[in-house]
């Protein structure tokens, strides 16, 4: 560039040399607008798992298809989203702080629930004089027949009632949960008392009265447990527990036994009533009588037309496209069709209540056979009560391990990068928790057998195997219920109960071997159901 600049031919010497003008920026020299947008939306596009997420982000920013065609030269928001998705590398940042775990729970609370489940069994120790009598048709003392019949009825009813109340609680409506308990508990107590009376036979009045009180306790305890009042229930059972412990070392007169039973029953019933009674005052706006009438009216209204959000009946013209006039045939037909459509489209909040009730019935029958199978078949052996005690106490560890499994599967869902990896993580958590539960059940079974007077041999391999297989049935049943798959587990448990009942009625084989085979088949069936569920990511939502 040391030479002079060129001049155009024919110009004068004083003329300024020609300097090339600077070029205007061309379109190919500009930055790509899609790259600029990718840099601007980098974090959001990086975390997307599908281009449709990016398209939704673009539409939320107010970009129309015309603007996208003018600015970015692509057809629409979906084409732009695909381009952004291809140009930005995937990266999923971990959330700040520890990940939220909705399944985290404390061990002490679960163990307390197991103790609360088992403590009512001490009531049978106090009520022994009331249940005594000549052996009946089933080889049991006559007084125990109405007690067992009422217990099975109570387990069935209260399992379904608890599911209904828990459903309302999960929807955030504790008032509706209390209302369901207020209406359902007296009905369950009455039904259980009538069943016990029908099964009384030659049993005395004391046995029937005890069975009725047992029904009342089961209903009131369900109220307290559903509302999370385990410690309150434990305190109410303290007099009965102390009396049962005293009877082990010193004889207690029958009037004192009855007084202790009635005292604990009255305390539990009163606490349960206080838990649900505010619903009546709320409905009656401070008046008990008006609240009861409103409660009955609300129940009748729910049995009729579908209700709106505030509990008011839907208008007859709701959803009627033709706006037919009342009093005309097309209008009445349109109203009926509208009500039918509304009833079909209404959410079925309590669709699984029957399944939960049947699971309560089937599992109750299986536990009953585990404890009384030898006696019911006519064998002159002691009652295997330690098995029932161990199963009841094990419900505390079972609940905690169930939460641990759901927590472990959720952690596996976060850390896994493939479906196979997630299935492997979920299966490992399942085996670990199930093994832990069976170990706890084995320890409880051996300990209860060692402490129970005149208990069957604790080292009986068939009996221990049956107990562990029944534990598998119970724990996998609870796991399937947590997945919402109650229909399958209820069918398996009820089929096992029917099979064992048929074997008992036909005197087929030894009760221990029959129980081992039935429990093994049920455990295998439910294990298949659990494996089918745990392999699905959507089941862990």
Note down, in words, how this protein is organized.
This protein is mainly alpha-helical and 541 residues long. It has three domains: 34-87, no CATH class; 121-286, no CATH class; 352-540, no CATH class. Helices cover 69% and strands 0% of the residues. The protein is elongated, with a radius of gyration of 35 Å. The relative contact order is 0.07.
SSE class: mainly alpha
- The poorly predicted ranges are 1-27, 300-330, 342-347
- Note the main sheet: none
Total of DSSP H or I helical runs spanning 4+ residues: 24
Silhouette: elongated
Number of strands: 0
Question: How do the SSEs run, as a string of H and E?
Answer: HHHHHHHHHHHHHHHHHHHHHHHH
User: Compute the gyration radius: what is it?
Assistant: 35 Å
Q: How much is the average pLDDT?
A: 79
Helix content: 55-70%
Region (Disordered): 1-34, 302-330
Biased composition (Polar residues): 1-10
Keywords: Membrane, Transmembrane, Transmembrane helix
Transmembrane segments: 110-132, 138-158, 179-200, 206-226, 233-252, 258-277, 353-372, 384-405, 426-452, 464-483, 490-507, 513-532
């Amino acid at each position: 560039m040391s030479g002079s600049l060129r001049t155009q031919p024919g110009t004068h010497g004083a003329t300024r040399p020609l300097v090339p003008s600077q070029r205007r920026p061309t379109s190919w020299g500009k930055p790509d607008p899609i790259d600029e947008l990718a840099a601007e939306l980098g974090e959001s596009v990086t975390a997307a798992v599908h281009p449709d997420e990016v398209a939704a982000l673009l539409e939320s920013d107010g970009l129309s298809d015309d603007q996208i065609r003018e600015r970015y030269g692509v057809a629409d928001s979906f084409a732009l989203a695909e381009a952004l998705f291809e140009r930005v590398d995937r990266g999923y940042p971990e959330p700040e702080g520890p990940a939220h775990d909705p399944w985290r729970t404390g061990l002490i609370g679960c163990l307390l629930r197991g103790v609360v489940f088992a403590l009512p069994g001490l009531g049978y120790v106090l009520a022994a004089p009331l249940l005594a009598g000549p052996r009946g048709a089933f080889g049991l003392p006559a007084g125990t027949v109405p007690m067992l019949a009422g217990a099975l009825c109570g387990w069935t009813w209260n399992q379904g009632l608890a599911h209904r109340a828990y459903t309302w609680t999960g929807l955030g409506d504790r008032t509706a949960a209390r209302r369901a308990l207020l209406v359902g508990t007296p009905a369950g107590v009455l039904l259980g008392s009538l069943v016990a009376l029908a099964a009384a036979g030659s049993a005395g009045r004391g046995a029937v009265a005890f069975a009725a009180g047992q029904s009342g306790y089961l209903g009131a305890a369900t109220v307290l447990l559903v509302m999370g009042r385990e410690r309150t229930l434990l305190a109410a059972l303290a007099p009965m527990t102390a009396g049962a412990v005293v009877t082990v070392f010193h004889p207690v007169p029958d009037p004192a036994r009855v007084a202790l039973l009635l005292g604990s029953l009255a305390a539990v019933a009163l606490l349960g009533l206080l838990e649900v009674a505010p619903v009546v005052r709320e409905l009656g706006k401070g008046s008990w009588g008006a609240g009861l009438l409103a409660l009955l009216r609300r129940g009748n209204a729910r049995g009729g037309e579908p209700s709106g959000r505030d509990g008011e009946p839907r208008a007859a013209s709701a959803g009627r496209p033709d706006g037919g006039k009342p009093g005309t045939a097309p209008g009445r037909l349109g109203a009926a069709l509208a009500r039918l459509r509304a009833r079909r489209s209404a959410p079925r909040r309590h669709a699984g209540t029957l399944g939960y009730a049947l699971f309560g019935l089937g599992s109750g029958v299986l536990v009953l056979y585990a404890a009384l199978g030898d006696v019911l078949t006519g064998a002159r052996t002691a009652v295997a009560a330690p098995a029932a005690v161990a199963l009841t106490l094990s419900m505390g560890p079972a609940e905690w391990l169930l939460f641990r499994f759901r927590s472990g599967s959720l952690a596996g869902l976060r850390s896994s990068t493939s479906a196979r990896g997630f299935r492997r993580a979920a299966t490992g958590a399942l085996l670990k928790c199930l093994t832990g539960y069976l170990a706890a059940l084995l320890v409880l079974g051996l300990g209860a057998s060692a402490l129970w007077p005149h208990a069957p041999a604790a080292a009986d391999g068939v009996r221990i195997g049956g107990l562990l297989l029944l534990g598998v049935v119970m724990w996998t049943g609870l796991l399937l219920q947590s997945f919402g798959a109650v229909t399958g587990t209820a069918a398996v448990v009820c089929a096992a109960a029917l099979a064992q009942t048929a074997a008992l009625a036909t005197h087929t084989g030894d009760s221990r071997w029959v129980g081992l085979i039935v429990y093994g088949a049920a455990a295998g069936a439910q294990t298949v159901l659990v494996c089918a569920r745990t392999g699905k990511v959507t089941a862990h939502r």
